[in-house]
Structures are given as C-alpha cells and as structure tokens.
Amino acid sequence: MKDTAKHQGLRNQLVSQLKEKGITDLRVLDAISRIPRHLFLESSFADFAYQDKAFPIAAGQTISQPFTVAFQSQLLQVKKDDKVLEIGTGSGYQTAILCAMGAKVYSIERQNELFKQTSVFLPKLGIRPKHLSFGDGYKGLPNHAPFDSIIVTAGAPIIPSPLMAQLKVGGRLVIPLGNEHQIMTLLIRKNETQFEKHEFGEFRFVPLLENKN
Ligand code: SAH
C-alpha cells in the first residue's frame, strides 16, 4: 500500500485533533504528521488508521492510540540524538515516531512474531532504529545502558528496577502503572538514589508480561 495525498490529509486532521486534546510539543506533532500509520495496521483496519483509536496487531497485541503515543512521547521530552529505550516494540509505530524525532531508539519485544515482522518492516519505510531486540523488557538492555529516557508501552504492575538503574541522572522514565487500567507515570532521576514521581491520569494498555523465553 502507498502513502498518498489523501493519507497526508487524514494525518493533518489527526494532528489537529491531538492539538485539541492537549498535545503541544511541535516535534511530536510533526512526527505524527510524517509517519504513515496506515502502513502499520493489518489491511482490514487501514481505512481507520487516522482515527484516534487503538487497533489489534499480530500475536494478540495492540497498536497504541495516537493520543497515547503522542502523550508518552511528549512526556519523554526527546532531544535529537537522545538514546531512548522502548519496552514493547509491537507494530513499531511508537518506535518510528521516536526515530522521526531524531532519537537513537533501542526497542525490546517479547513476541517473536512481532519482533521479526517489525525488524523487516521498519527499514522498508526507511526507518532505522539503533537496535531492535527480542527479549524480556523487564530486564532492559544493560549492555547498552545508560539511557536518556525510557518508555514502556505495555501496562506494568510494578516499575522494573533494572529500568530505573539504566536511566541517566536527569533522565525520564514514562510507564503506565497498574493491572486492569494504568496510571501514566513519569519518573525523573534526580541523582543516584532519588527519583521524582508525577502522575497523569488513566490509560489502558495490554499487559507487560513476564519473561516467556
Ligand atoms: N509500542 C507498540 C505498542 C504495542 S502493545 C506500538 O506502537 O505498536 C505492547 C507491546 O509490549 C506488545 O507488542 C507486547 O508483546 C509487548 N510486551 C509485553 N510484555 C513485554 C515484555 N516483558 N518485554 C518486551 N515486550 C513486551
């Protein structure tokens, strides 16, 4: 499937909706206006790709709602060349948004089917994350740490301590915390031992699951 002027028009409308819903970071909005979300969906859902909704992807997972992607990306305050760790690659849409913002993205996915699919698909779009890995996001990527920021895109019952340890001082960890529903939570690392916590209302994600490998 192609990216056409019609799709660009739909993306512009989506960007307007996201502004109305409170997204102000122009670099986030610019990335959303450039990444062709319809190509990340199974063809039966592609017509709805620019509605602000989550949709099913392979392996029983979901592609996050655009507002959620924009909200989490805004909380990260990504700067060009920042090293960002993402937990839950899924469709690769959030990965692509962070790459479009100039981040060096490291992403982990525990479903092999999605890991393989996304590893092939993103380069076809000209999107090159620094590192895609198949494994357990609870552990982070100690060999590549520390990170400027970390984003978790599945609902986490707890904050995995390895992720806190892999964050630079001054870095930001954005994680939806909870079981049935989640509270979007931002941790800012103040120094070696202290983290400042901020909470931003309720969201719904598929669960961050324990290691199955
Ligand atoms: N960022 C994705 C969101 C996908 S949904 C997107 O934009 O499409 C969340 C993803 O987290 C799912 O693909 C799920 O398989 C993955 N996931 C769940 N538990 C995980 C874990 N422990 N480690 C890595 N990925 C995990």
TrEMBL record:
GO CC term, one of those recorded: cytoplasm
GO BP terms in the entry: methylation; protein repair
Catalytic reaction list: [protein]-L-isoaspartate + S-adenosyl-L-methionine = [protein]-L-isoaspartate alpha-methyl ester + S-adenosyl-L-homocysteine
InterPro entries: PCMT (IPR000682), SAM-dependent_MTases_sf (IPR029063)
Main location: cytoplasm
Molecular function as annotated in GO: protein-L-isoaspartate (D-aspartate) O-methyltransferase activity
Enzyme Commission number, as recorded: 2.1.1.77
Subcellular location: Cytoplasm
Keywords in alphabetical order: Cytoplasm, Methyltransferase, S-adenosyl-L-methionine, Transferase
Active-site residues annotated for this sequence: S64
Pfam families linked: PCMT
PANTHER family membership: PROTEIN-L-ISOASPARTATE O-METHYLTRANSFERASE, PROTEIN-L-ISOASPARTATE(D-ASPARTATE) O-METHYLTRANSFERASE
Job description of the protein: Catalyzes the methyl esterification of L-isoaspartyl residues in peptides and proteins that result from spontaneous decomposition of normal L-aspartyl and L-asparaginyl residues. It plays a role in the repair and/or degradation of damaged proteins.
Similarity field: Belongs to the methyltransferase superfamily. L-isoaspartyl/D-aspartyl protein methyltransferase family.
HAMAP family per record: PIMT
NCBIfam families on file: pimt, PRK00312.1
Protein name: Protein-L-isoaspartate O-methyltransferase
